[in-house]
Amino acid sequence: MTPTRKRRLLLVTGIVAGVSIAGALALNAFRRNVTFFFDPTQVAQGEVAPGQAFRLGGMVTQGSLARAPGSLEVRFIVTDFSHQVPVSYTGVLPDLFREGAGVVAHGRLNASGTFVADEVLAKHDEKYMPPEVERSLKRRHGESRANSTTGAADATPAVPAPTTQTGS
Amino acid sequence: MLPELGHFALILALLLAALQAVFGIAGPMLGRERWIRAVSPALAGQAVMVATAVLCLANAFIGNDFSVAYVAQNSNSALPLFYRVAALWGAHEGSLLLWILLLSLWSVAVAIRSGSLPPKFAARVLGVLGLVSFGFLLFTLATSNPFMRLDPPAPDGRDLNPILQDPGLAVHPPILYTGYVGFAVAFAFACAAMLEGRLDQAWARWTRPWTTSAWAFLTCGIALGSFWAYYELGWGGFWFWDPVENASFMPWLVGTALVHSLAVTDKRGLFKSWTLLLAILAFSLSMLGTFLVRSGVLVSVHSFAADPSRGMFILVFLIIMIGGALSLYAWRAPLLKSDAGFELGARESFLLFNNVLLVTAAATVFAGTLAPLISDALHLGTVSVGPPYFNPTFMLSMLPLAALLSVGIHSGWKRGRLKDKERMLLFTFVAAAVLACGLVFGIYRHGQVLSPVAATVGIWILIASLVDPLDRWRRGLTLSRGVLGMTIAHMGLGIAVVALTTVQSFTLERDLAVSPGEVAQVGAYELRFQGVKPVEGPNFDGVGGTFVVTRAGKPVATLTPQKRQFWVQHQVTSETAITVNHGNNLLLALGDDLGGGRWSVRVQVRPLVSLVWLAALIMAIGGGLAASDRRYRNVRVTAGAAANAVPGKA
What we know:
The complex is a heterodimer of chains A (about 170) and B (about 650). Chain A is α+β, with helices and mostly antiparallel strands. Chain A has a domain at about 35-150: CATH 2.40.50.140. Chain A has helices at about 5-35, 40-45, 130-150, 165; strands at about 35-40, 55-60, 65, 75-80, 85-90, 100-110, 115-120. In chain A, a hairpin with a 5-residue loop joins strand 3 (about 65) and strand 4 (about 75-80). Chain B is α+β, with helices and mostly antiparallel strands and about 650 residues long. Chain B has helices at about 1-30, 35-60, 70-75, 80-85, 90-110, 120-145, 170-195, 200-230, 245-270, 270-295, 310-330, 345-375, 385-410, 420-445, 450-475, 480-505, 610-625, and strands spanning about 385, 510-515, 520, 525-535, 540-550, 555-560, 560-565, 570-575, 575-580, 585-595, 600-605. In chain B, strand 3 and strand 4 (about 525-535) form a beta hairpin. In chain B, helix 10 runs antiparallel to helix 11 and helix 12 runs antiparallel to helix 13. Classes of the chains: A alpha+beta (about 170), B alpha+beta (about 650). Chains A and B meet through helix 1, strand 1 and helix 3 of A and helix 12, strand 1, helix 13, strand 2 and strand 8 of B.
């Protein structure tokens, strides 16, 4: 090999090695730091691993906002109209946080089933509904309608209703 | 009548853009002289029509014409005149129109300066720009026409989103878009060169000032956006790795790589096909960014106007533009071989590393930004990717980049000749390390493992950048604007690295509950809450809290953060109060009434955060200075040059 070629080979090898290492590290960081979104029904069905940090999304139940007088701690209930999850948060709530509006919170479930949020997000626009919440509600809404047509209670596992029955 | 005139002007602009594209691209191919000569007039007509449309829309905003749906949705008769004008680009339709206007202005600038280009080549460049204009005009007319009428007209408008009612709206989008759109020029040059099948060093030199100016605008635009988010959103952060921020940051990273790769192509005739690829990528990411933000496919804190129904059009348009350019690249790039060697320690190597690292950074940001979309599409669950992913992966490529910079700027072209610089490099490095430790352990008195390392790297850039210019100045030699601009931009980066280090390592964030008369301690500062009182503005009312801030008993400032309730949209916004003291940015955002006179308040102390924005501004100034270098004036791109120009001593 000529010196030029050797040098070039060295350079290319170095770059390939560097990029692969960066890629591997990025992938690792990615696997460990990606946050999943769950709605209250998924939480109720136990889809969340214990101690796992995740994003909870849904609507803030009307009249559920409670605050210990003078303290920063607030409690409210997030619902997807099938299931509910109580949430506690200590800190300043975002401007657009309202009862009856969509919300996404980041945090973990504690032993008693309360979601302890370390961050509460609400979006810029008051008309705005977080897309994850909208999708989740659409899914649940469809299900609950199927449930009511078949006469099943809310607690039944979400099995798609047979179409013949729905028609009758 | 005027809205219809605007609509009509937009349709004419579409037709003229089509002519511009056909004449510009097909004319040179078929050898039609008259077509080539018709490109510039078509462009002029297109620009006039687009400007007419913008003026018509502006007139509707100023005159409170709520029979126009877009005006009714984004303005209100109580809105101050200033915001009525800026509201023009406050939502999707108008911001697209702004995009198109800026594209036509860039195109006109290229046409004016194209006298030194061979007519065929100039026609191709303008033709490609015409194609881009055509696509955006078609998109606007088909899916997002701002001139749609309401029947019956609305009695009053729904008002501009209160978050946007800020002077930042007047400057941030136009400057950011000027940057985005500016990469279209580099893109058009790349496509024209590939259509031509040749690319010489003069081509690169012609493209450089355009790319550098676009980059400078983008830098400025991103910094303004970050600053605006910092004081207006009330969360206090300056960068959230939000999809919308990433959408502007990815073209910036690739654009930075392009600026450096163009330097190699200009000076040495190397990296030709790589430069072309970067030019295509930079603009593709700009378009992707514009559309990702606007289509609502990505969940973002900044999406003001989202409409998924536009997704299909966007997808098809992106496939045609990006796919077309990349196919052209696959077909033509092999023609553009460059075969000159360079040593491992040569400047070419350092610029190669620079490019690899910048593109790697852009790729990790890209992966993190699009992962939620892909995961959702594949039904792997709804996920989000945040700072815990972005911060380390980004630093992984940026720290080596910053460290290599200080050495790279002292290496020579072709042969590194770094042996003579060893002592100077070592000396500057040690000096930087000492200063960095002084900053981290002396001033802030604690830190994480990486704090002194990153601070050293940043300060090293600052010192090392100054060595050459100071040496030249001492010997009475002149500095070209190019070198001066480069030095300033690199020093801007050094400042940014130092400032980002201190902000990331030493920020204090506290949410407090305070009663009137109570004193709270945050870091070195004492805050005395004096209660709230009502405030009223032209289209809102609310409350303002008063906080007297002292540092070790000495008065610093009286801050009055507000909570505003806007009448039309019933939206609540926080008006933060900020003061700068000893390099610390102290930010207060008023929270909620906790009952019994107590209020919650968010307090943040960010050391040297102002320097982050200042650094970006310095980088942009450096870019602007470099773009105005004399050597870019009257560059002759000769028609007869060989396809693979021999790299000379340009």
